[in-house]
Specification:
This protein is an alpha/beta fold. It is built from 16 helices and 15 strands. Strands 1-12-11-10-13-14 form a six-stranded parallel beta sheet, sandwiched between helices. Strands 2-7-6-5-8-9 form a six-stranded mixed beta sheet, sandwiched between helices. Helix 7 runs parallel beside helix 8. It binds nicotinamide-adenine-dinucleotide. The site of nicotinamide-adenine-dinucleotide has 22 residues, from helix 3, helix 7 and helix 8.
Length: about 450
């Protein structure tokens, strides 16, 4: 039933004191994603690309994106005419680039970690870039320079030798100029004008024009996500992925000091992503009047937004949950493990120490999620679906490997020999024991 324009746009409403444990657990859940069907659909697409390379990718682009092309890979240096931007756009992208670069550059381990665990036993750790990375930038119609920045900058900072960017072509077969401009800035070597599972397969297996990569990053629709999972499980292509991805989420915690218009605006900036967006408001000791003001702002601001139709679908399955204390709110938030956590609190910085699980935190009324989505410097590719319990968002460390080493002197050999020989004996690995014994025998002559 299409909703009437005058219908009120409202979140569901609960109170922690009047729901039971079962209901609380239900509120923590995300919609079930069954990927078996999608995996069945993407597997043959990927096999085709593996067998027939570029020809298969071009066929699928014709079929799914309705774009006819003769070649789909462009290589650096890119044509300046295809990345022409108006000065305001260029300025905005350049500023975002600089902030994201600064924050991700600071994450790089530039020095070797050295620890002498015992006299003469020196352990070290150093990092090396993953040599070839594939970055998926979604959307044929959408313009997503931000995702290109968020994936491309850490790859550049880490020193990845080859950066391949895949993105669906526009209907005329061209690349969004903003995306190409960022591809140029981060030093990408190839841009593949293709999307979906076929693009992921091209980067995982390599084609005549697309280099095979070692790790694939980036968000995308269910076909992209399933293709990344299939590629990761196929040992023949030896590729890894950044993280599992589901629909985007925000959890906002607001107390009486919160500005209802700001809280509503933050909820809606998430709700406009898609009908499946997850939006949660935790109301800490709010008066009925204050909560009502937030609800009114949600409705009124939503009505004025161009993506009101999407919001009409996402807001009704979102909810607010009222509770008395900040401790209860933080406990719920940590159990939910949101992708984005926004703190509209009197002492927002003080609440950060209570955060156990979240992709990225937005502290105080002047830190909207939009800042992190675009330009404050933090990454916007973050774990969803509760995976922030154990995954980090995309960061510079995802683009490097850490290699450890040890270097021992004769003194170190002498001091550690008996321990290692004993442990090897317990495990019944005589050759291991012997590798120490032949040395220590000479030292202890
Ligand atoms: P997309 O690039 O993810 O997928 C488009 C591709 O899907 C097309 O190129 C086509 O090849 C393929 N496809 C479409 N229908 C198909 C079918 N029936 N069978 C096989 N393949 C098919 O773009 P999208 O679809 O617009 O989705 C964008 C996704 O990315 C959304 O889910 C959005 O939430 C997400 N997103 C996330 C972020 C972020 O950083 N978190 C940013 C932007 C977008």
């Amino acid at each position: 039933e299409p909703a009437l324009n005058s219908d009120r746009i409202e979140m569901m409403k609960f109170d922690l004191d009047s729901i039971d444990k079962k209901k609380r657990n239900e509120l923590l859940l995300r919609p079930i994603i069954d990927s078996t069907e999608i995996i069945k659909r993407v597997t043959p697409i990927m096999q085709q690309v593996r067998q027939r390379g570029d020809a298969a990718v071009l066929d699928f682009t014709r079929q799914f994106d309705r774009v006819e092309m003769e070649t789909h890979t462009i290589t650096a240096p890119f044509d300046p005419a295809q990345m022409k931007l108006d000065p305001e756009t260029k300025r905005a992208i350049d500023q975002a680039y600089d902030n994201i670069y600064k924050f991700h550059d600071a994450q790089l381990d530039k020095e070797t970690l050295v620890v002498e665990t015992m006299p003469g036993v020196v352990c070290s750790r150093f990092s090396r870039p993953i040599e070839r990375v594939g970055l998926y930038v979604p959307g044929g119609t959408a313009v997503l320079p931000s995702t290109t920045l968020m994936l491309g900058i850490p790859a550049k900072v880490a020193g990845c030798r080859e950066i391949v960017i895949a993105t669906p072509p526009r209907s005329d077969g061209s690349v969004v100029p903003e995306v190409l401009y960022v591809a140029h800035k981060v030093g990408a070597s190839h841009v593949l004008k293709a999307g979906g599972a076929q693009a992921v397969a091209a980067m995982a297996y390599g084609t005549e024009t697309v280099p095979k990569v070692d790790k694939i990053f980036g968000p995308g629709n269910q076909y992209v996500t399933a293709a990344k999972m299939v590629a990761q499980n196929d040992t023949s292509c030896l590729v890894s992925i950044d993280m599992p991805a589901g629909p985007s989420e925000v959890l906002v915690i607001a107390d009486m000091t919160s500005n209802p218009a700001y809280v509503a605006a933050d909820l809606l900036s998430q709700a406009e992503h898609g009908a499946d967006s997850q939006v949660v408001l935790l109301a800490v000791d709010l008066t009925e009047q204050h909560l009502k003001e937030i609800e009114n702002e949600v409705h009124n601001q939503a009505m004025a937004l161009p993506r009101c139709d999407i919001i009409r679908k996402s807001i009704p399955h979102s909810f607010s949950l009222s509770m008395k204390t900040l401790e209860e709110a933080m406990e719920f938030s940590n159990d939910y493990a949101p992708e984005h956590l926004i703190l509209h609190l009197k002492d927002a910085p003080g609440a950060v120490s209570m955060v156990q699980n979240a992709g990225s935190v937005f502290v105080g009324q002047y830190s909207p999620e939009s800042f992190g989505d675009y330009a404050s410097g933090t990454n916007h590719t973050l774990p969803t679906y509760g995976y922030s319990r154990m995954y980090s968002g995309v960061n510079t460390n995802g683009f490097v490997k850490h290699i450890t080493s040890q270097e021992c002197t004769a003194e170190g050999m002498d001091r550690l020999a008996d321990t290692v020989m004993r442990l090897a004996e317990i495990e019944g690995l005589d050759a291991h024991r012997n590798a120490v014994a032949v040395r220590v025998k000479d030292l202890r002559k």
